[in-house]
Amino acid sequence: MKGAETFFVDLARAIVNGLENMGMSALGAEIILLIIKFACIAGIVTVNIIILIWLERKISGFIQLRLGPNRLGPWGVFQTIADAIKLLTKEDIIPSQTDKIIFRTAPIVFIIISLMLYVVLPFGDGMAIVDLNLGVLYFISVGSLGTIALLMAGWGSNNKWSLLGAMRSVAQMISYEIPLVFSLLAVVMIAGSLNMSDIVNAQDKIWFVFLQPVAFITYFIAATAELNRGPFDMPEAEQELTAGAYTEYSGMRWALFFLAEYTNLFAVSALTAIMFFGGFKGPFLPSWLWLPIKAYIIMLVFFWLKWTLPRIRMDHLMAFSWKVLIPVTLANLVVTGCVLHFLK
Amino acid sequence: MLETDFITINVGPQHPSTHGGLHAETVLDGEHIVDLKVHLGYVHRSVEKIAESRTYTQFIPYNSRLDYLATHLPTMGYCQAVEKLLGISLPERAEYIRVIMAELSRIASHMLFIGSLAIDIGATTGLIYCFRDRERIMDMFEMTSGQRLISSYMRIGGFNEDLPEEFYPAVKSFLDDLPYMLDEYNNLLTGNEILQARLKNTGILSAEDAIAYGVSGPNLRASGVAYDIRKAEPYGIYDRFAFDIPVGQKGDNMDRFVVRIREIEESARIIRQALKDMPEGEIKAKVPRVIKPEKGKEVYHRIESSKGELGFYIVSDGGEKPYRLHVRAPSFINLGVLPLISRGGKLQDLIANIATLDPVLGEADR
């Protein structure tokens, strides 16, 4: 059990030692290790998304009394791979009236930003790629950059539907960023650190979801909105805006947006697990298994919400954020601060 | 201040939520609708002109293609209009079968309404539940005529074939399960906080406006006018059945939604009574082989279709083809209020408004 727990940490140390024995400087070895880590993240994310998309389709099928994919492989597990091949081999269409540079870069920016989120996540004990002291702040600030990519897509497409979707996404992201940060701040106040590993270690005795139930609920709502998932899927809103910001995209460019959304989904679910459900802490299994397990369970809730609820109206969405979520999270912050002050 | 401008955006004819080929030229100020113009005609097939080159019998199948979601209702309207023209009265049993098929069509149409409204406001799952249950009605239509969507089961003067044996248990079990189905819709949709927020107080159509624009059917009743042709001017044998007219209060989208759910219950009530009272006997009246109404005779017959007042105006010149046939299509006239109820609302309300007006473009464009 001990070996399994520290398997990846030991492996990393062995690689560094091996490189140094071969006569490489300590800095060089660290850089090569970082590159290996990033490559691993890219690989894990890709495989993970293939599973995720399949899972969402199966679960939406279950909710909607359908079978879901069932042709390729057992329970249709290879469906996503077949879809990916189809998307890769599709003709690359760039409409003639688009702003070509912005149109081309938007999906790349989006996927890079969503991959950057993974850098600070502690996948296990001591298994963050970069153990940043400002981890939570980094995650939130990078996460909000995704809006720029959506705005680029909407503006560059030179399409009114796309522009409407992009404008919606900007309005939504800005409004929901604030309650999201305030909810997380309550957790950070208890943990006394912005470092994600420290926050997880602070949940040794009790998960923060029990100490901060209000913050958890507001966080979860704001996170759903941040992810552009139903019932807050304004930017796409296929029944209203055909496909919102993605209207003009097809083939692999569209797939990149799609991949980035699922990448975000897993990252935010992992963040939820880290901030409220004790992250990689858990009995019996090694720590690097606990985080994915918790993240997947949280993701099931996201799926469930999306496939059950109707889409909220744009003005209700804004009113809900500014008139309900922000006051509630602010009050929660004040109460948390007072309690912490008197407990000291 | 930055200079701002309205954008004109074409909702349709190629759009996911326009129920066919509806084209709404919308002027938007951000998310607000400043103005709206409805363009029609994208699925025009000149059905009325075709009628002039078909005999009365040959024209029967074209009717289902008007309102393909409630297949038996337009067929019934046409057949009754021709029967009125010829002065034929139907055998008892045929009248009862007509009522059963018509009300089943109404339930199917309203179920599809609930499902398409659900998907238009983003609740994808609602569509699948409604389609699952509507499928059972489609199966019953298939038993009677071999056709599911556009079954031309009715004939002028009655029916060619009686209801098959397996139809009775199917319709009975469907009626028994109907309350549970409606419970499921209510739990999934009607009680939902987001759905209520989106439908309540949006797309308000006052009773005065509804009457002034000639709106009919569930849309009119949702505005609080208890007007149903089945009661106001009973055709066929509708005067024999006991049923209520559900009415709304405000005429907003929520009222239009709830009125249709309650109409499903009322239709089920009618079918139960019809199944109980249905006599044995003939199913077809004596109709001349070649239908030639008197010269210069004309008739207007209207029925309560699932969309509203569906009228057929037929003029005969003594030949075996109608001289002129006009369809008063409720979808077409109901769509007239779309700009009125959408102006000043949000873009997302427009989608809900189109869905709750429940137009069938095949009928609106003819």
TrEMBL record, chain A:
<keyword id="KW-0812">Transmembrane</keyword>
<keyword id="KW-0830">Ubiquinone</keyword>
<dbReference type="Pfam" id="PF00146">
    <property type="entry name" value="NADHdh"/>
</dbReference>
<feature type="transmembrane region" description="Helical">
    <location>
        <begin position="101"/>
        <end position="124"/>
    </location>
</feature>
<dbReference type="GO" id="GO:0003954">
    <property type="term" value="F:NADH dehydrogenase activity"/>
</dbReference>
<keyword id="KW-1003">Cell membrane</keyword>
<keyword id="KW-1133">Transmembrane helix</keyword>
<keyword id="KW-1278">Translocase</keyword>
<comment type="function">
    <text>NDH-1 shuttles electrons from NADH, via FMN and iron-sulfur (Fe-S) centers, to quinones in the respiratory chain. The immediate electron acceptor for the enzyme in this species is believed to be ubiquinone. Couples the redox reaction to proton translocation (for every two electrons transferred, four hydrogen ions are translocated across the cytoplasmic membrane), and thus conserves the redox energy in a proton gradient. This subunit may bind ubiquinone.</text>
</comment>
<comment type="subunit">
    <text>NDH-1 is composed of 14 different subunits. Subunits NuoA, H, J, K, L, M, N constitute the membrane sector of the complex.</text>
</comment>
<protein>
    <recommendedName>
        <fullName>NADH-quinone oxidoreductase subunit H</fullName>
        <ecNumber>7.1.1.-</ecNumber>
    </recommendedName>
</protein>
<feature type="transmembrane region" description="Helical">
    <location>
        <begin position="136"/>
        <end position="155"/>
    </location>
</feature>
<feature type="transmembrane region" description="Helical">
    <location>
        <begin position="176"/>
        <end position="194"/>
    </location>
</feature>
<feature type="transmembrane region" description="Helical">
    <location>
        <begin position="31"/>
        <end position="55"/>
    </location>
</feature>
<dbReference type="GO" id="GO:0048038">
    <property type="term" value="F:quinone binding"/>
</dbReference>
<dbReference type="GO" id="GO:0005886">
    <property type="term" value="C:plasma membrane"/>
</dbReference>
<dbReference type="InterPro" id="IPR001694">
    <property type="entry name" value="NADH_UbQ_OxRdtase_su1/FPO"/>
</dbReference>
<feature type="transmembrane region" description="Helical">
    <location>
        <begin position="289"/>
        <end position="308"/>
    </location>
</feature>
<dbReference type="GO" id="GO:0016655">
    <property type="term" value="F:oxidoreductase activity, acting on NAD(P)H, quinone or similar compound as acceptor"/>
</dbReference>
<keyword id="KW-0520">NAD</keyword>
<keyword id="KW-0472">Membrane</keyword>
<dbReference type="GO" id="GO:0009060">
    <property type="term" value="P:aerobic respiration"/>
</dbReference>
TrEMBL record, chain B:
<feature type="domain" description="NADH-quinone oxidoreductase subunit D">
    <location>
        <begin position="297"/>
        <end position="366"/>
    </location>
</feature>
<dbReference type="GO" id="GO:0050136">
    <property type="term" value="F:NADH dehydrogenase (quinone) (non-electrogenic) activity"/>
</dbReference>
<keyword id="KW-1278">Translocase</keyword>
<dbReference type="Pfam" id="PF00346">
    <property type="entry name" value="Complex1_49kDa"/>
</dbReference>
<dbReference type="InterPro" id="IPR029014">
    <property type="entry name" value="NiFe-Hase_large"/>
</dbReference>
<keyword id="KW-0813">Transport</keyword>
<feature type="domain" description="NADH-quinone oxidoreductase subunit D">
    <location>
        <begin position="120"/>
        <end position="295"/>
    </location>
</feature>
<dbReference type="InterPro" id="IPR001135">
    <property type="entry name" value="NADH_Q_OxRdtase_suD"/>
</dbReference>
<comment type="subunit">
    <text>NDH-1 is composed of 14 different subunits. Subunits NuoB, C, D, E, F, and G constitute the peripheral sector of the complex.</text>
</comment>
<dbReference type="GO" id="GO:0005886">
    <property type="term" value="C:plasma membrane"/>
</dbReference>
<dbReference type="GO" id="GO:0048038">
    <property type="term" value="F:quinone binding"/>
</dbReference>
<comment type="function">
    <text>NDH-1 shuttles electrons from NADH, via FMN and iron-sulfur (Fe-S) centers, to quinones in the respiratory chain. The immediate electron acceptor for the enzyme in this species is believed to be a menaquinone. Couples the redox reaction to proton translocation (for every two electrons transferred, four hydrogen ions are translocated across the cytoplasmic membrane), and thus conserves the redox energy in a proton gradient.</text>
</comment>
<protein>
    <recommendedName>
        <fullName>NADH-quinone oxidoreductase subunit D</fullName>
        <ecNumber>7.1.1.-</ecNumber>
    </recommendedName>
</protein>
<keyword id="KW-1003">Cell membrane</keyword>
<keyword id="KW-0520">NAD</keyword>
<comment type="similarity">
    <text>Belongs to the complex I 49 kDa subunit family.</text>
</comment>
<dbReference type="GO" id="GO:0051287">
    <property type="term" value="F:NAD binding"/>
</dbReference>
<dbReference type="InterPro" id="IPR022885">
    <property type="entry name" value="NDH1_su_D/H"/>
</dbReference>
<keyword id="KW-0472">Membrane</keyword>
<keyword id="KW-0874">Quinone</keyword>
